[in-house]
Amino acid sequence: MKSYNIIFFVTYILTSSLLTGQVRCVMENDxxxxxxxxxxxxxxxxxxxxxxxxxxxxxxxxxxxxxxxLKHINSISIHNTAITTLKGLDNVERIxxxxxSRNDSLIDLKNLNKLRYLGTMSMIGxxxxxxxxxxxVDTVIELIIVGSKLKKLxxxxxKYCKSFALYDSYLDDLSGHNLxxxxxxxxxxxxxxxxxxxxxxEELSIEVNPRLHDITPLNELTKLNWLKLSSNTNLSWCSVxxxxxxxxxxxxxxxxxxxxxxxxxxxxxxxxCISGTGSFxxxxxxxxxxxxxTNVLNISGLSEDMPYMIINMVGDRVMSGMAYEAIDMSSLPxxxxxxxxxxxxxHKVLKRVxxxxx
Length: 358
Description:
With about 350 residues, the protein is mainly beta. It has helices spanning about 1-15, 35-40, 40-45, 195-200, 240-245, 265-275; strands spanning about 25, 30, 50-55, 70-80, 95-100, 115-125, 135-145, 155-165, 180, 180-190, 205, 225-230, 255, 285-290, 295-300, 305-310, 315-325, 325-330, 335-340, 350-355.
């Protein structure tokens, strides 16, 4: 027991910072499997404010309060626990790496409200988490969200975000955040990109999205200089305005591979850009009513039947056909949908609007 105390004392002397007043500790065993093991942290390391690494696993863990003295964490993994909040990380100001994975009782991140710097944050699962309130930082280098049930990005904020990635998510609204500047965004296996304009990145990768049919919202982007469209197997129309304008722009990089015919290469897109410019319909005169709709959705401003498609919020097509003055939606369950009206080529989107079905 005495030898252990000597090692413990030496560790503290070697890792203390006299200039900052912070005490940096390296745990002898940084894998935590039991609540009692975690609770002993504040006893074994009473003055520790900077922690090198800790890995917290198993449903036996329900409370992180023993970590309340920490201000800086180099690496922390919290996986498959029974925690409901991040209470215990209330005083942390800087995290170089954090993994939150399969903590299915976790309901909020509000205890991170003192956090100012995030290196990499990976969130996988955590299916009770419905918002990101608590993450308001100055800088985040890499934010990765996989398989969430988030409804919005509400609560998420940063003055600078180098990279934001969203995979396997049924998130139907990318807005609600306070990310002031984003350099790169990656979207994988999402159903729509309706609110991509709120992110407005410089670089965008849209990869392996079999449910994605429409990239018209890209026209909202004002800073984009690099776009990658890859393995979107049902994406057949990429001749949207922002791409057409930049096909020959040497300062705009466009990478294409594995998409449906019409989006496989620049030649196919160029053909669509040329053929899609001759539409005689004034799209600003097309009106959709009522909102919300109970049975019949009325359409005005069309001079003839036009193709339409109705897509649910997970990107699945639930209705399609030809429409002129009305669409009967009585067979659809209540919820939110996206209606798209096309020109005769089935490529150019004339009107795109969200519809609430009561």
